[in-house]
Design brief:
- The protein is of the alpha+beta class and about 130 residues long.
- Strands 2, 3, 4 and 5 form a four-stranded antiparallel sheet that branches. A two-stranded antiparallel ribbon has the order 1-6.
- The protein is elongated.
Length: about 130
Amino acid sequence: MRLKVVLLGALSLTLMPASSQAAVRVCKETVSSGPHVGKTVAEGQKLALQAWIKAAGISGSRFAAWRLAITKSLSCQPFTEHSVVCVASASPCALEQVPPSAPTPAQPPSAGPRVIPLQPSSPAAKPLNI
């Protein structure tokens, strides 16, 4: 029985891929739908979300997914006695697959700070003796 477990474990290791990929989220600056009037809150929200998806899609269709966006805001206020005005706002994001051995692609300066991992040979990467 123990031999079967060991053999199955060894077999599973040989069937695993040699390298794997990591998904990273790439985000753009905040996009707003602008105000949209609906007869109900549900209609106003739907119109605002449709406008946000269209506006976010300008950066590329892969950025036009509300579910991947960050810093989401969908707010509605009464407009008239029988209508509401809604605005959707969020930073559109897309997922990219990056192999672990590939260098991180350079991002434009407006994309925010770039994090560079410490290299083992750098003085800052040496362990501290405390």
